[in-house]
Write a structure and sequence with these properties.
The protein is an alpha+beta fold. The chain has 8 helices and 5 strands, in the order ααααααββαβαββ. The chain has helices at about 15-25, 30-40, 45-55, 60-65, 70-75, 80-120, 155-165, 185-200; strands spanning about 125-135, 140-145, 170-175, 205-215, 215-220. Strands 2-1-3-4-5 form a 5-stranded mixed sheet, sandwiched between helices. The protein is elongated and about 75 Å long. It starts with 15 loop residues before the first helix and ends in a 6-residue tail after the last strand.
Length: about 230
Amino acid sequence: MGINYKIKDLPIIERPKEKALRYGIETLSDIELFAIILNSGYKNKNVLQLAHEIYYQNGGLINVISMDYERLISIKGINKNKALLLKTIFEFYKRINVKNSFFLYKDNLTYLTNKYQNLLNNKNQELVFIILLNYQNKIVNETLIYQGSEKYVYVSSQEIIKFIKKERKSKFILLHNHIENYPYPSDEDILFTYELKNKAKKEKILLVDHIVIYPNGYFSFLENQI
């Protein structure tokens, strides 16, 4: 990619736009797709060279998608408008990915809420469960990890993470019940969820959801995007 040539000097089969129109967008490589989004290079570097350079200097597509606006505009050949376009496309990708992940997770949510609604319906104490998942979001283990009183249960984020690491899993769901028919998580639930999620992330463990079961329903942090 060291020779400075213009895109129009390339055979049609090597020009990203023409190749997409003639053979289909699915035939393009990641770099060719990226080049179409970038649309143009600059004086001494055509758009394919620019796309190739950004792609490989940043370790591939996943890392490119993770770049922030300031990092993008610091790259020669990417102005403010291009950076904003890229961030817009990246944001669409993230939102679609989140919604698709939730769609795949929905069966688990239905199963868990139905099961634990029945299981915990007549309990007079708070119980906390850890549901472990594999890479395909399939449930592989459900464990009661804490039992509390009618009004309080002590839960340690460190102990939960320790348990998950011992089981050699990297994805989990936290589930607990409320004795009273209150359809929302408490302030303590919300704070603990954020604390646990952040601590787990440092250990490369993903808290997929926190489900609160109450007598007449449930609350899912993932479903409500909290």
